[in-house]
Design goal:
Layout: E1 17-18, H1 23-27, E2 33-34, E3 38-43, H2 49-63, E4 68-72, H3 77-86, H4 92-96, E5 100-104, H5 113-127, E6 131-135, H6 147-161, E7 169-175, E8 180-181, E9 184-185, H7 190-193, E10 196-205, E11 208-218, E12 228-233, E13 236-239, H8 242-245
Parallel strand pairs: 3-7, 3-10, 4-5, 4-6, 6-7
Antiparallel strand pairs: 1-2, 8-9, 10-11, 11-12, 12-13
Bound molecules: adenosine-5'-diphosphate and magnesium ion.
Magnesium ion (MG) binds next to helix 2.
Length: about 250
């Protein structure tokens, strides 16, 4: 794919990669996400975004010994830990080793937004977080009245949290079909500032439904193009090799 460098946001300072936790996907991404980059995961509810983010944090904490933090506005810590354990992603031992933390936050109002970001930034400092997942950006949408609000927010996000050698590699989840901006449907503006975008979908295939992910943007990376079939099973997400399923992609 041709690389198009249009970024005005801080470029990740190194070529270091943060493995995604899905080995086959890493092979399609030159080893993973660029360390310190911001990647959005977007798709309708139920398409696998939360599980994907969890693979990323679990792998980082377990294999790379990188502290991860999951910021959730959608789910309680108890329910999250339970659901992930059922998929073979056991975070409790990692919590005990201070390699994982869960921050449960209410959806903010516009007045509450700065304090919320201060809190996230403080927790990142305290926990020496290197991998961050925010679930979800669209749950914060009532706090944004205008595109200007959103711009300010993304600057704070990029300036304080993401980017550069010391920044966290951050996955920002957006729920397609939800969220508003000043009373209008959410348009995915965050995809313009993000370094990468992965789209999650479920599409009909005859009687069945097939899950896909697609890397539609990944700055500085020679990546796979086109839909990548996935499965979600008892061990979480698995990349399905196209010829295994007999599904031309
Ligand atoms: N143990 C499991 N076995 C098979 N599929 C599962 C299992 N747990 C969850 N899923 C599938 O994963 C979906 C939820 O994935 P999730 O990452 O939470 O979606 P999203 O965050 O995009 O809303 C469920 O709707 C279900 O289809
Ligand atoms: Mg989710």
């Amino acid at each position: 794919m041709t690389e198009v460098a249009v970024s005005k946001t801080p470029e990740p300072a190194t070529d270091e990669r943060a493995a995604t936790g899905l080995q086959e996907l890493d092979g399609m991404l030159e080893g993973g996400f660029l360390s310190g980059s911001l990647v959005t995961l977007t798709g309708r509810p139920g398409t696998g975004k939360t599980i994907f983010g969890s693979h990323f944090l679990h792998h980082g904490a377990k294999k790379g010994k990188q502290a991860g933090m999951y910021v959730s506005m959608l789910e309680s810590e108890k329910s999250y830990l339970h659901n992930m354990r059922r998929l073979g992603l056991d975070f409790e031992p990692l919590m005990a080793q201070k390699r994982f933390s869960f921050l449960e936050l209410p959806a903010p109002t516009s007045e509450g937004l700065p304090a919320l970001w201060e809190q996230i930034a403080r927790e990142i400092d305290e926990n020496e977080t290197e991998r961050l997942v925010i679930d979800s950006f669209t749950a914060m949408s009532p706090a944004f009245q205008t595109v200007g609000d959103l711009r300010t927010f993304t600057h704070v996000l990029l300036g304080k949290i993401v980017g550069g050698a010391s920044g966290c590699t951050t996955l920002l989840i957006t729920e397609e079909g939800t969220g508003t901006l000043g009373g209008f449907p959410w348009t995915g503006v965050e995809e313009f500032v993000a370094d990468g975008v992965i789209k999650f979908s479920i599409v009909p295939a005859g009687e069945a439904r097939v899950r896909y992910i697609e890397i539609t943007k990944m700055r500085g990376t020679n990546h796979q193009m086109g839909p990548i079939p996935i499965d979600i099973g008892p061990r979480g997400i698995r990349i399905v090799h196209p010829h295994v399923r007999g599904n031309p992609v």
